[in-house]
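User: Just a sanity check before I run the rest of the batch. Below are the structure tokens for the first item. I only need the designed sequence back.
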């Protein structure tokens, strides 16, 4: 397992030709590149998309490029309710990613109990490559693991499909606060 560089990750994601599906299952993450934005949100209770534009530009450009090429990008988040401060931060910050072409849905954790889910967040690329994201207990990214093992990919495909079908589209999912 090794941490992919931003260029390696962009290349892997950019290699998708049909679909890129992401399942997130943690209630908080401690990514260094989000710390300042999260701190501002916690202080103000709102996201300033204009102020964050430069920090998010590279990611949004990748999403625009691949969705513009016809790749369907979907993200589903399984969340505990009431949601954590981090999930409120993510929910309030979803607009630019959706405008860039990403589809987003939310699934309350209580509705996921009967689902077979992998132990880690993952990306499923063209339904043939799975990339797992590994985190420490406090949410610090530790690295990624890429596999094309048919059984593992099938589990990820089935898990994402189950979550996506039950999840609430972003525009219909409300949080308090």
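Assistant: Here's the designed sequence for the first item:
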């Amino acid at each position: 397992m090794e941490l992919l560089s931003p260029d390696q990750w962009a290349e892997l994601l950019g290699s998708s030709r049909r679909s890129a599906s992401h399942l997130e299952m943690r209630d908080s993450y401690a990514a260094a590149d989000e710390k300042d934005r999260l701190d501002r949100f916690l202080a103000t209770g709102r996201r300033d998309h204009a102020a964050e534009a430069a920090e998010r530009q590279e990611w949004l450009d990748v999403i625009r490029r691949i969705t513009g090429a016809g790749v369907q990008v979907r993200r589903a988040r399984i969340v505990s309710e009431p949601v954590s401060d981090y999930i409120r931060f993510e929910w309030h910050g979803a607009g630019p990613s959706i405008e860039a072409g990403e589809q987003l849905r939310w699934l309350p954790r209580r509705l996921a109990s009967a689902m077979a889910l992998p132990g880690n967040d993952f990306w499923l690329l063209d339904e043939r490559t799975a990339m797992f994201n590994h985190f420490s207990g406090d949410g610090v990214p530790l690295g990624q693991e890429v596999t094309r093992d048919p059984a593992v990919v099938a589990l990820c495909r089935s898990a994402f499909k189950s979550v996506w079908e039950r999840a609430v589209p972003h525009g219909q999912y409300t949080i308090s606060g």
